[in-house]
Amino acid sequence: MDDVLAVGTALVDILVGQVNQIPDPGDLKLVTQFGVATGGVASTFARDCARLGLATGLVASVGNDPLGELLIRELKSDGVRLRQIRHDERLATGGSVVLINSNGERSFLHLPGASIQIASPELVDVTKCRHLHLGGTPLLPEYDGPRGEALFRRARLHGVTTSFDTIMNESGWEQTRRLLPFTDIAMPSYEEAFLLTGYRDPADQAHFLLQAGARIAVVKLGSEGAWIADADRAFMAIPSEEIKAIDTTGAGEAFCAGFVYGLLFDWNLEKTAAFATACGSLATQAVGGPTAIESLEKVLKWLDRYPVTLRQI
């Protein structure tokens, strides 16, 4: 039995920093950071969950190539259980070139590749997990729409809690909305929440998510923390101002992993939000996705050193 089953994108990131301006064609620009790391909304979330001590399974797709082998090796090294990993013979392993500026903020050049060719929703066994997390909507063609809705509905029928994390895309959000009536935790970033809801104010975004059926609405606000609401209350979770980001890659996935951890251990919403925010801020302290989330103990020490402010709205 898995505590968490993550379904969605698994990628390889090429990380380049510091890049504050794209060079003109033919120009050369020296950088201070260059590396390769595993990425992807679902696979990064899965690695973080496993490092926190949760029994974590993953359903994803990679290419039959060296980058796919690297990704599988890294997942195994963190103890992620590879439940349904497709090795695509036609498409290369998906990936992103991540350009990191001097503030740790990122821009992306992205190739979906094999990452969106994951197993059909009907084949995902929700009877062998406590929580189902979908990572990468609305860039998951087979999961965005009625088939993803049916998967979340089936999970609910089996007593499995559900969540989703989104990825920036200009279209497809009407399909993601279909998940909301069967979602326990909706966790888009601010810009993604705007595309999902049509509202600019985080309060309105959260209200929309709740009215559409989500039990808990989370709007991730980057360095400003997160707006969190359920039927009874709304508040902001704000990280310490002392924290200076090195690289924000994977911070959102780390936040989601921390939030699901709290849900699974029946923590109250405030404790869960503080822990998730600590996971997200700690993830900014190293280059690459889950690099800084080494263990539950490290997150708890980080939270003790840099307390999270909870501001009631």
What's the short version?
This protein has about 325 residues and is of the alpha/beta class.
Jot down its keywords.
UDP-N-acetylmuramoyl-L-alanine:D-glutamate ligase; four-stranded mixed sheet; alpha/beta; 313 residues; ten-stranded mixed sheet; globular
What does this structure look like?
With 313 residues, this protein is α/β, with parallel strands linked by helices. It has a domain of 101 residues: UDP-N-acetylmuramoyl-L-alanine:D-glutamate ligase (3-Layer(aba) Sandwich), CATH 3.40.1190.30. Helix content is 30%, strand content 27%. The chain is built from 9 helices and 14 strands. Strands 5-4-1-8-9-10-11-12-13-14 form a 10-stranded mixed beta sheet, sandwiched between helices. α3 links the parallel β8 and β9. The relative contact order is 0.15. The mean pLDDT is 95.
Count of DSSP helices? 9
Coarse shape: globular
User: What strand order characterises the main sheet?
Assistant: 5-4-1-8-9-10-11-12-13-14
Biggest β-sheet strands, sense, barrel: 10 strands, mixed
Please write the string of helix (H) and strand (E) elements.
Answer: EEEHEHEEEEHEHEHHEEEHHHE
Radius of gyration (CA) equals 18 Å
Helix content, binned percent: 25-40%
| Weakly predicted, low-confidence segments | none
Strands, total number:
14
Mean residue pLDDT? 95
CATH architecture of the domain at 9-22 and 33-119: 3-Layer(aba) Sandwich
